[in-house]
Amino acid sequence: MNLHFFKTVFAVALVAGAGCFFGCSSEKAPEVENNTLVNVSYDPTREFYSNYNHIFMKHWKEATGKDVKITQFHGGSGKQALEVVNGLEADVVTLALEYDVNIVRDAGLIENGWVKEFPRNSAPYTSTIVFLVRKGNPKKISDWNDLVKDGIGIITPDPKTSGGARWNYLAAWAYAEKQFNGDEEQVKGFMKKLYQNVLDLASGARGSTNTFIEERKGDVLLSWENEAFLSLKDYPKDYEIVMPSVSVLAEPSVAIVDKIVDKRNTRKLATEYLNYLYSDEAQHVAARHHYRPTNKAILDEYKEFDQNVNLITIEHFGGWENAQKTHFSEYGIFDQIYEKN
């Protein structure tokens, strides 16, 4: 063999060795921990998460010695789910209902079984649906049957984009089922009359609140309980809350967006962010923002919550997949009964 051959072999071996030195180690290079977090949430949680973020940042600093930066995005729950699917990089989603989280799951961003990842089916707080009426209740609205009367103007968001609006719809449906002993045609007739009285369908709950409060449209706002209490706090002389005889146990869902936290190396941070929602401190913050704590002992401390109301769960409708398919999918019952003005 000539000298040229040996020089060539040596050069190839040297390059290969150098490549292995820089990139072929049996140990992975340590990953840099990311201390930024993005929470994509729905409309009425703005104030709650603004306050929760402060107590969480303090908790994280005490536990790890590190600061964390948290960014929030808010809008109609269904719309927010689609934003994440279409590229908004969320470490966690805190949406109005399980179905909207499943939209993100079905896009391959969240792993199956997310609903069991945190306690109480990954719902750290609950709410329900109430009526917000103008002070003195001039239209004498006391229950769902009053909403189908002539001359009643209703404000509620669009069930196609708002999770709260779907809870509103299902609460009304459950009441009508009880009134008409499950006769579906009569229930559909009731729902058709109710939506004929709807003056405006905003894309999210906060938009509907603004329509009712700022623009002063309508006689009654179908509202998250926490959103209604917030309006009452801001305008105590202008509004009052009416609790209908039948409502729903609204269970907003939280989940880690697995594909994003693995990409951004934020899984540890995101997990603790959602875990800490179940802490006593966070449960008190939820209650002060008029969400119902899932910790019963803490819930009992807050007398504003009517615990005797008849709250229907989503299981009454066969779970969210069935409710969505039956009522809110294209050509579902909502499309059948709602006629745009």
TrEMBL record:
Keyword terms, alphabetized: Periplasm, Signal, Transport
InterPro entries per the UniProt record, alphabetical: Thiosulph/SO4-bd
Disulfide bond in keyword set: no
Pfam families per record: SBP_bac_11
Cellular compartments per GO CC: periplasmic space
Superkingdom per UniProt: Bacteria
Intracellular or extracellular location(s): Periplasm
A GO BP annotation: sulfate transmembrane transport
Signal peptide span: 1-18
Molecular function (Gene Ontology), one example: molecular carrier activity
Family: Belongs to the prokaryotic sulfate-binding protein family.
Protein name in the entry: Sulfate-binding protein
Species, as recorded: Fibrobacter succinogenes (strain ATCC 19169 / S85)
Lineage: Bacteria, Pseudomonadati, Fibrobacterota, Fibrobacteria, Fibrobacterales
